[in-house]
Specification:
Layout: E1 6-11, E2 14-19, H1 29-44, E3 50-55, H2 77-88, E4 93-97, E5 100-102, H3 104-111, E6 114-117, E7 122-124, H4 138-146, H5 148-157, E8 160-162, H6 163-169, E9 174-175, H7 180-193, H8 210-224, H9 230-244, H10 247-262, H11 265-280, E10 298-301, H12 305-316, E11 321-324, H13 328-347, H14 353-361, E12 363-366, E13 377-380, H15 386-399, E14 405-408, H16 415-422, E15 428-433, E16 442-446, H17 453-465, E17 469-473, H18 481-498, H19 502-510, H20 518-525, H21 527-539, H22 551-558, E18 572-574, E19 577-579, H23 582-595, H24 605-626, H25 632-642, H26 652-659, H27 661-675, H28 686-694
Helix pairs in contact: 1-2, 3-4, 4-5, 4-9, 5-8, 5-9, 8-9, 9-10, 11-25, 12-13, 15-16, 18-24, 19-24, 21-22, 24-27, 27-28
The structure holds coenzyme A.
Length: about 700
């Protein structure tokens, strides 16, 4: 028996069931149909002594097919009933495991009677990251095999276990190095020869001791604090059912919980992001057959906070880095900061002494540009000034070897201008890291007008190597993320002038799930930083001709209220704790008087949310229209990976579809009417207008 994705053969009295569904052997409907048919064949062959299940390619089954969850007909029960059939065999069923044995893959393995794994196999239940739970008996079998505390921990966190840890936990039975198929056959022959009775995980008793009760109570309390993630509570209830009820009753509760989670907004959003992150890593447009350039060593110019953080990413990935500075003191300060960061991680037990040593050994400092001449990639991370960066780029153009890539970490300057300054613009790309650069997952990869295709391909590849989530942006002021932040900050300041308080604005925005409201965020990143950007744009004549535009941040800066580091900004601070500061209301009231702005005593939270978020969304759609970003999902990845946008809302473009594009357009029009639209703040982008008119969603829109 064989289908495209599942084959079965009888090899000397042992049934061999092979799953072959690249890239990760996900359980598509076709795979499940193939499995059922193969199991029926084995069932019918009464003389076949054992069944071995194994997978082709890089991994055993890495889970259910996430794309299939979108189908209204999706049901976990056909797969669960197949697992029940496997479990019930009197003849041994063996799973032979390699790669990442995840979700439905681990459920399949746990339904088998014996699990054998290669040493580097890894195990996990990552469904929670998709807002789901293991829906095919996983919440019932794992507590039976591994105990309630560990099962809860694994299912609630989605973290992976190594093979030795899985063995110690009782999740697998044996670790042996070798070819998965040969290992499976050997284990099957041994189990048959020794007449080892089959061991069914469904028949095991769940240990319901005090540790189990405490773990459940703790998990229930933690889940109660995160109502935006309904999967957490559902997982606790399902594991509790494993403790309290017979297997089949627990299984039914789990299936019902899964059904509800699958159609929940949170899970839909998280599934959208799963694919959006992976799609963002692919270069949009017609596929180009370009290879990437090789990157074996990296140079960084500027050992400030940014340069040091960027350097750590490469050292962490085992790539040697040379950091270049202009003075001994600056270099020593930069390298010292990196060492301190590593030592802090070691003190928290996140890194071993050996890892710290290995990473610091990969970092070298130098005062000589000549030491960059052999680097494959050089990133400039110097002071954000056009002249300074142009000078550095010109020097790099001369110093770097032919074929080396020159990247700029600018966040506000024109990458095309910097690229020309090198004299070799095809080699130039923007790499916009976010601070702290060693922590933040997002990397905006800026494609300049003349960036060579293989340079872009290399940038995307290296981003993945250093564990970043890369998103391509075209050249524009602020790229994707900071450009969308502009209307959001503009409306924040207008609302402050009209009478809203920083704490009210932050609370309204945080109620949406944003990690931090705009005022707290500005205080953290530095009022001076924000003000200098506005002042720089004013000097460049790039501000709207609106005398009221961003006057608050400029006044706070004049007053030295530079944010958390100055213990005063939009808030006053006790340590890191922001406290409402009546002085800020006075500053805003004075500014409002000077600028003739009418203050209101009540500003509804809904108005705050609409004015900040709908203008931000409108800017995102404009960015798509201009081709600065190619896909709505890319914009969502920028905001969820880099700006604290709640993942359970899927990002601003996904959220726009949930709100309805017509509703957003109509609301912008409404504000334009009531507030006046002299500066175009409320003009819906053409793309928003046309999508709204056609009743189309961003989710089904594409640039091509
Ligand atoms: N269903 C459908 N497609 C899946 C998938 C799944 N469960 N898991 C991975 N894929 C696809 C990815 O979308 C990607 O496709 P693409 O190449 O077209 O972009 C491809 O498989 C490779 O995945 P990727 O994540 O890029 O590779 P990786 O080697 O970094 O990681 C995994 C592999 C399996 C560890 C990772 O993909 C993963 O964690 N998958 C999700 C597992 C999961 O949640 N399982 C439970 C589902 S309920």
């Amino acid at each position: 028996m064989s289908t495209n994705v599942v084959s079965y053969e009888n090899c000397g009295g042992i049934g061999l069931l092979l799953i072959s569904n690249p890239p990760v052997n996900a359980l598509s409907t076709e795979v499940i149909t193939g499995l059922r048919s193969a199991v029926s064949t084995f069932e019918a062959e009464g003389e076949t002594k054992a069944l071995v299940i194994y997978c082709k390619g890089r991994t055993f089954v890495a889970g259910g097919d996430i794309a299939s969850f979108e189908s209204p007909e999706f049901d976990t029960r056909p797969f669960s009933s197949l697992l029940t059939r496997l479990d019930a065999f009197q003849r041994p069923v063996i799973a032979t495991l390699h790669g990442t044995v995840l979700g439905g893959g681990l459920e399949l393995a746990m339904a088998c009677h014996y699990r054998i794994a290669v040493p580097d196999a890894r195990f996990g239940m990552p469904e929670v990251k998709l807002g789901l739970l293991p829906g095919s008996q996983g919440t019932q079998r794992l507590p039976r095999l591994a105990g309630v505390p560990l099962a809860l921990d694994l299912i609630l966190s989605g973290r992976f276990l190594s093979a030795p840890d899985a063995l110690a936990a009782g999740i697998i039975d044996e670790i042996v190095d070798g070819d998965p198929l040969a290992l499976g056959i050997a284990a099957a022959e041994r189990l048959v020869r020794t007449r080892t009775p089959v061991r069914r995980s469904s028949a095991m008793k769940v240990v319901a001791d005090a540790a189990a009760t405490q773990a459940l109570a703790r998990a229930a309390a933690a889940a109660g604090k995160k109502p935006a993630y309904p999967a957490l509570g559902a997982i606790v209830r399902s594991v509790e059912a494993a403790v309290m009820l017979p297997f089949d009753e627990g299984e039914e509760i789990e299936a019902r919980e899964f059904d509800q989670l699958r159609v929940s907004g949170a899970s839909k959003a998280l599934r959208h992001l799963f694919f959006a992150e992976r799609t963002a890593a692919r270069i949009a447009g017609p596929p180009q057959a370009v290879g990437a350039r090789e990157v074996r060593s990296v140079g960084i110019v500027g050992a400030g906070t940014m340069g040091g953080g960027i350097a750590m990413n490469f050292a962490n990935a085992g790539i040697p880095v040379v950091l270049v500075e202009t003075s001994d003191e600056a270099l020593e300060r930069g390298l010292g900061m990196v060492r301190k960061n590593y030592e802090a991680s070691a003190a928290k037990g996140k890194l071993s002494a050996e890892q710290v040593q290995k990473r610091t050994r990969l970092l070298k400092g130098s005062l000589d540009y000549g030491s960059l001449s052999n680097c494959d990639l050089v990133i400039e991370a110097v002071f954000e000034s056009l002249q300074v960066k142009k000078d550095v780029c010109a020097r790099l153009g001369e110093t770097c070897k032919p074929g080396a890539i020159i990247a700029t970490n600018t966040s506000t300057l024109d990458v095309n201008v910097l690229a020309e300054a090198t004299g070799r613009p095809a080699d130039v790309v923007g790499l916009h890291f976010f601070s702290p650069a060693n922590v933040m997952r997002l990397l905006e990869v800026v494609r300049a007008a003349r960036t060579a295709p293989d340079v872009l391909a290399t940038a995307m590849q290296i981003a993945r190597r250093i564990n970043k989530v890369p998103v391509i942006s075209g050249v524009c002021y602020g790229f994707i993320g900071n450009r969308m932040l502009e209307p959001y900050m503009r409306e924040t300041e207008f609302l402050l002038l009209e009478g809203a308080l920083p704490q009210q604005i932050d609370a309204a925005i945080e109620s949406l799930g944003m990690a931090m409201g705009p005022c707290r965020m500005s205080d953290l990143s530095g009022i001076d930083i924000g003000a200098k950007v506005v002042i720089g744009q004013a000097e460049a004549g790039a501000l709207p001709p609106d005398p009221n535009y961003r006057v608050v941040v400029r006044r706070l800066f004049e007053l030295g209220r530079n944010g958390q580091k100055a213990q005063a900004g939009y808030y006053r601070y006790e340590g890191r704790t922001p406290l409402p500061d009546p002085a800020v209301a006075t500053i805003c009231a004075d500014l409002a008087r000077q600028h003739g702005i009418v203050r209101r005593s009540v500003i509804p939270d809904q108005e705050i949310i609409q004015r900040l978020m709908y203008t931000l969304i409108n800017e995102g759609i404009q960015i798509l229209d201009e081709g600065i970003s190619y896909r709505p999902g890319d914009v969502d990845v920028v905001w969820t990976a880099g700006y604290g946008f709640p993942d359970y809302r899927g990002g601003p473009m996904f959220m726009a579809d949930q709100i309805g594009l017509s509703e957003i357009k109509d609301t912008l029009d409404h504000f334009g009417r009531v507030r006046g639209n002299e500066f175009g703040y409320w003009t819906p982008s053409n793309l928003l207008k046309s999508l709204a008119a056609r009743g189309q969603r961003l989710g089904s829109w594409s640039k091509d």
